[in-house]
Design goal:
This protein has eleven helices and 22 strands. The chain is α/β, with parallel strands linked by helices. The structure holds pyridoxal-5'-phosphate.
């Protein structure tokens, strides 16, 4: 039980295992499942997420940075760990030494990786990133076959995989998606005619995994669904997910103010009658966006209560409904369930004007994660 600070995050690792198993059940047995645990497991904790995902059928892990890959290696994970983008050239020796598989997108990096592998007396696996229309990183699809042919001349490199990433997989019927799939499939076909055979072709993020089985290829790369959150409204109903993260706190102060008093910085909220105010020790330094001021609700006493006044760095205030008795130490839920009520990450994200992804990974390290 948390006791040093009355604000924390509960993570349900069984929910993560349930979600990974649900994805595993939707893809062919021979299809690999890369659990994407970047950004500290979308704020859920990379190590604990990786452990739960592994228990439910994940085959390998995807991360964004070398530091994130090292965290998994240092924790003792022996499964393949892949970077979803190409890291700085300075990292090549470390990648070879710690068996971290980079995405590869430039000639300079390829040459450096090859040299590092030769120096270590081994080979270095990589996955060629093909830009089929996202416009972010990767060799343009039309140039990929020539690029891959050039790569073949470098010693000690092993093209284990080739992949792309969709910009609109979560928006059914978007023509950009069809174009990306067409370009990627054509590039892979051309690689094969050139005698280049990546063993693991992959493209599917969560949305594509759920909505476009033709993108499963040899591996899928789900992230957000692992945590029980949907990539967009389009996947509701496509899978039964259990959300893993709850944001909780305890009331730190209770007071009653007369009519006409203001609350919090700028006095943006005023009482219209005698009002009981509950203070909650959570603020924007914890990841509760200040733009949520006067716009969000919390669960207290099993009921939805309005947050009032500006969200401060470390605290926020809640209007206690008339007739409800609240004491210091009572549990407050920002995201999660209490009594019969619940507030989803999606609801909070909508009120904040953003997406569940950004909120989940934005809750700060100041909040201790408790796992069950
Ligand atoms: C983050 C990421 C994913 C996972 O995306 P979700 O929408 O969370 O499933 C997959 N592939 C790449 C390249 C990514 O950057």
């Amino acid at each position: 039980m948390p006791y040093r600070r009355y604000a924390w995050i509960d993570i349900d690792t069984e929910a993560i295992a349930h979600n990974v198993a649900a994805i595993r059940a939707r893809i062919p047995e021979r299809t690999l499942l890369m659990a994407v645990v970047k950004a500290d497991g979308y704020g859920h904790g990379a190590i604990e997420t990786a452990r739960a995902a592994l228990s439910a059928g994940a085959d390998r892990f995807g991360v964004a940075t070398v530091e994130e890959a090292l965290e998994l290696r240092d924790a003792g994970f022996t499964q393949p760990v892949q970077l979803l983008s190409e890291p700085p050239i300075d990292a090549v020796d470390l990648l070879v030494e710690r068996d971290i598989i980079p995405a590869l997108t430039t000639r300079e990096f390829a040459q450096a990786l090859s040299r590092a592998a030769v120096a270590a007396g081994g080979t270095a696996r990589f996955h060629l990133k093909i830009d089929s229309g996202m416009g972010r990183i990767g060799v343009r699809a039309a140039e990929a076959p020539a690029f891959a042919t050039w790569l073949k001349e470098l010693p000690a490199l092993d093209m284990e995989g080739a992949f792309t990433h969709f910009a609109t997989a979560d928006a059914p019927g978007d023509p950009g998606f069809d174009l990306q799939l067409e370009r990627f499939s054509a590039a892979i076909a051309e690689l094969r005619t050139e005698g280049l055979r990546p063993r693991i072709v992959h493209a599917a993020n969560s949305a594509a995994t759920l909505l476009h089985s033709e993108t499963h290829f040899d591996m899928v790369r789900p992230g957000i669904v692992i945590y029980g959150l949907h990539p967009s409204d389009a996947t509701y109903g496509a899978i039964d997910l259990v959300s893993a993260m709850s944001i909780k706190a305890r009331v730190s102060y209770v007071k009653t103010i007369p009519a006409g008093e203001g609350v919090s910085y700028g006095l943006t909220w005023h009482s219209s009658a005698t009002t009981t105010i509950a203070t909650v020790p959570l603020g924007y330094a914890d990841g509760v966006h200040r733009t949520l001021s006067n716009k969000m609700q919390v669960l207290l006493g099993g009921r939805r209560c309005r947050q009032i006044g500006r969200v401060c760095m470390d605290q926020l205030m809640v209007e206690v409904p008339g007739g409800m008795h609240v004491s210091t130490g009572d549990e407050v839920v920002l995201v999660g369930s209490q009594g019969g009520e619940s507030i989803s990450m999606d609801e909070l994200a909508e009120r904040a004007g953003t997406i569940n992804y950004e909120l989940a990974c934005g809750f700060s390290r100041r909040l201790t994660r408790y796992y069950r």
